[in-house]
Amino acid sequence: MQTGVIAVDVGSRQVRGGLFDLDGTLLASSRTDIDLGQHSELMATYRMQEIWQAAQSVVRDCAGQAAKLHVAVEGLAFDATSSLFADGHPMPFGEGQGDVIGWMDHRAQDEALEISETRHGYLDYFSGAISPEIHLPKMLWTSRQRPGLFDEGISFRDVCDELAFLATGADVRSASALVCKWPYLPNETSPWCTDLLHSLGMPPDWCKTLPNLPVRPLGARHGTVSAEAAQLLGLAEGTVVAVGAIDAEAGVLGNIGPDLHAILNRTLLVTGGTSTNFMAFCAEERSIPGVWGPFLGAVFPGYWMHEGGQSLSGGALDAVLRQHAASPGAPSAENHKRVIDDILDLLTTEPETFAAQKHLVPDWLGNRAPLNDGRVRAIMSGVGQELDYRSLLETYYATARGLVLQMRQVIEHLNAHGYAIDTVHLSGGHRHNELLVRLYADCFDGELFVTDVPEPVLLGSAMAAAMAAGHFSSLFEAAKHMERKPVRVARDPKGVSRLRRDYEIYLKLYEAQKYVCRDWLADA
Question: How far apart are the C-alpha atoms of 264 and 226, rounded to whole Å?
Fold first, then answer.
């Protein structure tokens, strides 16, 4: 029989599964929606049982397809959004809420500011200011709002680790997830920042449990599928389960191409979906203001990663369709395509005048880079009272343009601090948006490559599963065998010229945004 592995990706609103062979070919796939409970502007939770049931469903589907294709499944891996599961109470974050606090949940803004004010060395890896999207502010908020839970022995896990725990019964933590979202510094003799936790008043007994947690790198063996989970997943008992990752890190692994060393220090890896991640790798430790990291071993052992991003990108384009009076309807592939096609036509007939007055800096849910402040908000020019269809097209285009110009700003910021980025690898849902792809290609002085892998995030987790099952000695080897060479996107000289002018406007608007936000934040 042919050998294969199954990968599971938990996104913001959907769980997907993929069956892969050891050459990286996607043989079968499955998906199931999950509910995101948005309890207020700042609060968003999930229910772990629903996520686990969705994971069971997609794994069973893939396992069923494997049987029909005569594929022996030897490995399983999970990735997930960097959402935080609280084990020990059905509603740890409040009445009517789930037991998983979503990655985009910003309820812990005050706690994030308090942590930042400690000036602890941990903050050097977040450019001095931690985001409410990181796990520590959320855990600190919980300890203060729900203190009794810690007396009851509550524990926290990344969703990728919880899924692997449910599949195996083994409580192992992913080093990839810890280094990016937890007070954990693997380059230190004592990785856990327990002194910081004590200074914040986190419960001492809980703090004592952290150094005893088993931690393993991405792609190591987490455990094997238990007898109980085997029945739920449709897999053989004893199937190897890999140590998993946050979805963005899995997406990077599925987007690097077959040669890791070719991307070091010169390639920005962009995973664009509801949110967008910008990631770059280097061989030495390097501090860059306004950028998360460097994180040692976030994906590849021995290499450092810097991370920027946008907390609302594809979600912002969805919001344009939901909110504008002239929208053709709710966000869907068909409605996005209709709007995009009409914009592309107008850019052909009105290359200099279309949306010439409408510009924005796209920080609807804070700025990850280069400001690194979750409190700032978007700023826009050219807003009028028009509610017609052309106004919709201009708003959609200005939003898309602002997103890609911010990527250029991040590239220039990284290059001013030691990188030499001249290449972008794009994966995620943005690669299916023709307008975004054109803008990405034209917005900076370098080359854009788009992965032709149908599911790069799933492929990244499939590599981890294949390595854990013993088929590759490292993630480097897995990439050589399972990756595809990305496809170069041609640039349009007219688009390059237009965006060069627009970028000058963007930078001026960015300076105005900083001025407004400085005054507001100073008074807050």
Answer: 39
